[in-house]
Design goal:
Helices cover 24% and strands 18% of the residues. Strands 3-2-1-4-5-6 form a six-stranded parallel sheet, sandwiched between helices. The structure holds zinc ion. The site of zinc ion (ZN) has 7 residues, from loops.
């Protein structure tokens, strides 16, 4: 819970910090197969965070949902979601307006038929990369608040990373109308520090 004691007026970026961009893919945007309301609104905000990290030569990582056609989470397979983010499809591509530099490492999740892929840490390469670069503090935003952001943040906290939740750069699926709000509250209770772009120095 130490994170919550940090002075929240300003957050200085420095060595050990990394930005983790979660699943900003076409299928999760309005018009996509599993559209998140206002999902597109996170794009310019995430771009500004990316700029801040690149300016300071700090690492940026991205995750993507990357499913086989017969993924177990799909309704056709007895799961709860419409088909989405099928590996190699247009829906699985990153949003066109997202300014991810080409060199950014991308970690795919949900590749296995029977794994949800809700957490970026399901891909073991993510943690290996973070350890290799001695990352201690993760700034996390993207889609969707109540699934992949939530699970990635919880896993990061369980692995003793400090987590700064980019509350202006997340949106929720809201299967139930309060899901996003509850997810944010739970992440904060578990130790994530909520911040906005204006707080980055
Ligand atoms: Zn998925």
């Amino acid at each position: 819970m130490n994170n919550r004691e940090i002075n929240t007026d300003k957050v200085g970026l420095g060595t050990g910090d990394a930005l983790l961009v979660i699943d900003i893919q076409n299928d999760f945007l309005p018009g996509g197969r599993l559209a998140v309301a206002e999902g597109d609104q996170v794009i310019p905000v995430i771009n500004s965070y990316i700029d801040r990290f690149i300016e300071r030569q700090l690492p940026v990582f991205a995750t993507r949902d990357w499913h086989p056609k017969n993924h177990g989470s799909f309704i056709q397979q007895g799961g709860s979601w419409p088909e989405h983010c099928i590996a190699g499809s247009a829906g699985a591509e990153f949003a066109r307006g997202l300014h991810l530099p080409a060199a950014v490492p991308v970690f795919s999740t949900g590749i296995d038929v029977d794994k949800d892929g809700y957490s970026g840490f399901e891909n073991p390469d993510l943690n290996k990369h973070l350890e290799k670069l001695s990352i201690s503090r993760l700034f996390i935003g993207g889609l969707a608040t109540d699934y992949c952001v939530f699970n990635t943040v919880c896993d990061a906290l369980n692995r003793n990373y400090q987590v700064l939740l980019l509350t202006d750069a997340v949106r929720a699926v809201n299967v139930h109308s309060q899901d996003g709000e509850q997810a944010i509250n739970q992440m904060i209770l578990k130790g994530a520090l909520p911040i906005t772009l204006a707080m980055i120095q």
